[in-house]
Design brief:
The chain has strands spanning 2-4, 14-22, 27-29, 32-34, 38-44, 52-61, 73-74, 79-82, 95-102, 113-116, 120-130, 133-143, 145-146, 154-156, 160-162, 166-173, 181-185, 192-196, 199-203, 210-218, 221-222, 226-233, 241-242, 246-248, 253-257, 265-270, 273-277, 281-284, 291-299, 302-303, 307-314. It is mainly beta and 333 residues long.
Length: 333
């Protein structure tokens, strides 16, 4: 506090005191302590029995610096530092200034708010000045950056597809807190349609196959990819058959498909019904008569046309009869 003394041994007088203080300080006039803005009249008795009057015009300058807790800084974003709760009205005849300092300020540095784009410590100094009295206050905050990239998402969908067909793929597990978008990559540039943020439909227009992948993104970067290896198939071509077309009665016949297809099954049509085999070979034993054998190849992408082969069954020769005498002479014809 500032102490102001008055000579009480003098004749009565009227005094004027005009002073400026920083908030938190006071002046003491005789026995009176003054700490707030205002005009005061103080009666001071003298030793001679005559009182003196002192008129005091006291100005108290506030200079409080207050910064609200800043938001977390996301990658590629900015944060507003809010100092509007600081002293923001200048006293009459006074000058009030603001000064921001810190790592990377891209907005104004001389206002109650500032915009920053890097993590670190930022400070606001408030200066209130009048008649040569300078009152200052400074406070600081730390801006924290959230630089977490998303975790790897997962999706489901068919891994065995057919050329010319479209298939749907859906993300089922992802980092919802840190993900802002997804990027899909088809193995050979196949086109796809975005149904919604979590689902696409891919048109498989070739037989190449490969990895279908997705990554999760945010402003800080991208996750590791999650991929499914896609195998592309086509409907089987018509089978080509190879077999003996003539056999003897009671014999066996082996019929082979000479152009087998991967992952196909074979539906054989015989006189006794349909026989399904996983292999491109059919063996029929003890055929009683001639017949036509047909086969179609089937896989996940469709079925071929039937191909048929005729198998002729020839009867066995008759046992010949021998006619003649029952005895014979040596060297006799």
């Amino acid at each position: 506090c500032e102490l102001i003394g008055i000579d009480t041994n003098t004749t009565p007088a009227i005094g004027m005191i005009d002073t400026v203080l920083c908030d938190g300080n006071c002046i003491i006039i005789q026995n009176d302590t003054l700490c707030s803005d205002g005009n005061y009249t103080i009666n001071i008795p003298s030793n001679q029995g005559c009182d003196s009057l002192v008129f005091v015009d006291l100005t108290v300058l506030e200079s409080e610096s207050v910064i609200a807790m800043p938001n977390i800084l996301s990658c590629g974003q900015t944060v507003i530092l809010d100092g509007t709760n600081s002293t923001n009205i200048a006293d009459q005849g006074a000058t009030l200034t603001f000064e921001w300092t810190g790592v990377s300020i891209i907005g104004p540095t001389n206002d109650t708010v500032a915009e920053v784009d890097e993590p670190g410590d930022y400070c606001l100094k408030v200066t209130h000045e009048k008649d040569g009295v300078i009152c200052e206050s400074q406070t600081c905050v730390t801006v924290i950056e959230d630089n977490i990239i998303p975790s790897t998402p997962e999706f489901i969908g068919s891994m065995l597809v057919c050329e010319g067909n479209s298939e749907t793929y859906t993300i089922t597990n992802y980092d919802s807190l840190n993900t802002t978008s997804f990027t899909w990559t088809t193995p050979n540039g196949e086109t796809f349609t975005q149904v919604n943020p979590l689902e696409i439909v891919v048109f498989w227009d070739n037989q190449l196959g490969g990895d279908l992948c997705v990554i999760a993104n945010n402003a800080c970067g991208s996750s590791a990819p999650y991929c499914l290896n896609i195998e592309t198939g086509v409907a089987p071509t018509d089978p080509i058959l190879n077999a003996l077309t003539e056999i003897c009665e009671g014999g066996n016949v082996q019929i082979d498909v000479t152009n087998p297809q991967p992952n196909a099954t074979y539906n054989w049509t015989t006189s006794t019904g349909i026989i399904q085999t996983p292999d491109p070979t059919l063996i029929l034993a003890d055929l009683p008569s001639s017949e036509t054998i047909c086969v179609e190849m089937v896989n996940n992408c469709g079925a071929s046309n039937q191909t048929c082969i005729d198998i002729s069954v020839n009867p066995l020769p008759l046992i010949p009869d021998i006619i003649g005498g029952e005895t014979a002479c040596l060297n006799f014809v």
